[in-house]
């Protein structure tokens, strides 16, 4: 009996994870399609982490391809996970930021505000991007220079 219960719990968890990814990919499509930008869900990389401390995993989406990358890096989209009435009205994920020219891993570090900061690599070295209440800077150039080691959770560690 307990084996059946465990199997049912694991199946429900897998369905929730699959549904979450499907909902996120729908949100990416809603974001990219009006801009007429091509993206491929099979090469889209996703990292889940709670950026705003609300107990729900938000998503960082690393996009590749000609419409999303240039000589200085690619684009990372940040999506906030919603629930309740907001999710019913806007969908499960809301685009919170588009960060272009990201050329390496993204490290999530403690911030000064409600949202955690992101440290990204750029041509000018690592930059700390802070959420301003509405979004993150659109590129590493809008961030603060980082000197010294960074302590946090590194996402997309292989630089893509």
TrEMBL record:
Domain of life the protein comes from: Bacteria
The protein, known as: VCBS repeat-containing protein
Lineage: Bacteria, Pseudomonadati, Rhodothermota, Rhodothermia, Rhodothermales
InterPro entries reported for this sequence: Integrin_alpha_N (IPR028994)
Entries under SUPFAM superfamilies matching the protein: Integrin alpha N-terminal domain
